[in-house]
Amino acid sequence: MKSSGFWGSLFSRHDTLSFVVLALILLVVLPLSLDIFRLSLMGKYMTYAFVALGLALCWGYGGVLSLGQGVFFGLGGYMLAMFLKLESSDPESTAIQTTPGIPDFMDWNQITELPWFWEPFYSFPFTLAAVLVVPTAFAYLIGVAMFKRRVSGVYFAIITQAIAAILTILIIGQQGYTGGVNGITDLRTLLGWNIRSDFARYVFYFVCVGLLLLCIVISQFVSRSKLGRILVAMRGAEDRVRFSGYDVANFKTFVFCLGAAFSAIGGAMFTLQVGFMSPSFIGIVPSIEMVIFCAVGGRLSIYGSVYGALLVSWARTAFSESFPELWLFAMGALFIAVVLAFPDGLAGLYNQYGRRHVERQLDKWLLTLKSSTRTASVKGVAHERQ
Amino acid sequence: MNASNTDFVLAVENLTVSFDGFKAVDDLNLYVDEGEIRVIIGPNGAGKTTVLDLICGRTRSTQGSIRFRNRELTKMTESDIVKSGVGRKFQTPSVYTELTVYENLEISYPKGRNVFGSLFFRRDETIVRKCEEVAEMILLKDQLYDSAGLLSHGQKQWLEIGMLLIQDPELLMLDEPVAGMSVTERHETAKLLRRISENRSVIVIEHDMQFVAEIADKVTVLHQGKILTEGPIDTVKNDPKVVEVYLGH
After folding, report:
1. Domain membership flag for residue B103
2. A270 and A353, same structural domain?
3. Mean pLDDT value across chain A
4. Cβ–Cβ of A226/B119 closer than 8 Å?
């Protein structure tokens, strides 16, 4: 409240600290301490953070639990994968196919012509737009269809889960058009630029950090706007909001679309960094994992959800390297523990125990900073007088 | 349906709603005047809350008409009914417990009510002043920046009334506004209602007969979805039918 200006209206003092710390970790600490293989893995985990961030707004703030965020993550990823696939399927490199110039999996499925809906994906600007627009528009349709009919809570969650299952089955079933269960693989270049080189991986990592920070800024803007407060109000007393003249369905649809758009960006960055996209990132299991990321980090916290995604994914890799069978049990146990013992996740624990000390330290630090700048300016004035 | 125009603020005519054959409100006629405080009383299940639900659009009528300033409400959406000037307080105080008193009032202020309007909503001096003014009226000036979850039951009731006042509705409907209040709080609420009815009509559902006597211009007694009797409190109180079904012997 005290600080003014654009930044001050979006970030409280503590938010600023959280933002700077996260930015430092992602931009400085991790790149300096990890080799490119591990850093690239971190980049992959970060793509889940987009989804978790969207869930923090949608579920944490708005109370709309979606168990189908994988749909939007996957759609975003597929949009970009289609473009990359077309680029790597030029007639020269596919000369051995029956029909050169179409993606290899189509050729294997006796398809002899590029399907119409693949055509626009020759255009890079179209693809970028589609990454954002297609998943968001799909979320909009679901939102309008469900929320206008007052479908909410568990029913909504189950429907989103069903949609995730349907989309997976559809993609696997339409192998010739979608690449089926293998997904769209063997992606090599982006606008003629090798996406598998170490340099490209560094670039993608930093682009991913940049986009994530941008999404956090957007989340801050939303959560601190009146809309953010309406979402919180709706979560507790939906009827009161409705009978205060708001069309509740529109607000739910908005936040659901925003979560979908974030997830789509994450999905597209996933395709770029991992080099393929498959239905295994769309279905029920990944969608629920995303919810666990968000819950562990703290669904009420923008930053918590990001840390949740990074930490749980990292733990999964570390754990499944040594105990591959146990990981799923550990994940389930973690979720149960979060729900029972610390429902507000890591962020809740931090707010309860750590935050006070941090705030006090910050107070002290700002005070010294202020007094030292004041002495400096006084000295400056004195100097000018002389 | 004869939709003849009237001078009443609210004209409810032949209103019926049936839930699986059970008529919760049965052929009801109710007219509320400008600046009137109307109290609806009646035993449990008489259909009092249902009448308010029907007026504010929470429940859809089976037949009949509800005209507010000669505009038919039965086909309008809840938010449009609110925008046309009807405010409604729920039986259990519903305020936003995770927000401050100020934020509760600000959300209720009729500005930036659509998605993008609220996203780019800017707090200005008029709004802050209006919120402070209402907070003073509902005796919550000192709690303005406290979380609404910390308020007492009675204070939550006031806050919800305040949230309606800030919308400046022409018709205010209050479902048991003094439930859970102390005697002093009840007096304060009666004073508050007197003050706010100076330039609007108020419909109140209440059980506390002392409070009813304190505020009512006119009392309507509902019984099994029908009007048993209607009139000034003293007449109603002594009506043998009312004593029989509601007030007891």
Report:
1. no
2. no
3. 89
4. yes
**Confidence bin at B45 (pLDDT 50/70/90):** confident
Res A285 pLDDT > 60: yes
Query: Do A108 and A249 fall into the same domain?
Result: yes
Chain B residues near residue A244 by CB distance under 8 angstroms: 82, 107-108, 163, 167
* Range name among A128-132, A268-272, A370-374, B143-147 with the lowest pLDDT average: A370-374
Q: Which of A227, A233, A236 sits opposite B115 (nearest CB)?
A: A227
Q: How many distinct structural domains can be found in chain A?
A: 2
| Interface touch B96/A237, C-beta < 8 Å | yes
Shared domain check, A379 and A294 = no
- When CB atoms are compared, the residue of A239, A246, A250 closest to B90 is A239
Cβ B112–A222 below 8 Å, yes or no?
no
* Minimum Cα–Cα distance from B86: chain A residue: A243
| % chain A with pLDDT above 70 | 96
CB-count burial class (<10 Å; 0-12, 13-18, 19+) for A329:
exposed
Q: Residue B62 belongs to a domain with what CATH number?
A: 3.40.50.300
Minimal Cβ distance to A229: which of B103, B114, B120? B103
Sign of CA dihedral A59, A64, A67, A68: negative
Cβ distance of B90 and A246 shorter than 8 Å: no
Q: Tokens 């925008």 correspond to what residue? A: B83
Neighbours of B224 (CB within 10 A): 15
Please check whether residue B119 lies inside any domain of the structure: no
Domain range for B174: 10-92+153-247
- In this structure, are A311 and A369 located in the same domain? no
Q: Chain centroid to CA A295: how far? A: 14
ipTM (interface pTM): 0.87
Confirm or reject contact between B52 and chain A (CB < 8 A): no
My answer on whether A206 and A316 are in the same domain is: yes
A95 and A235 co-located in one domain? yes
DSSP tag of A91: T
Asked if residue A369 and residue A332 are part of one domain, the reply reads: no
Q: What domain range includes position A378?
A: 347-386
Q: What is the DSSP string of A304-367?
A: HHHHHHHHHHHHHHHHHHH-TTTHHHHHHHHHHHHHHH-TTHHHHHIIIIIHHHHHHHHHHHHH
d(CA A31, CA A25): 9
B84: nearest CA partner in chain A: A245
In tens, the pLDDT along A310-367 reads 999 998 888 888 887 888 888 888 888 888 888 888 898 888 888 888 888 888 888 8
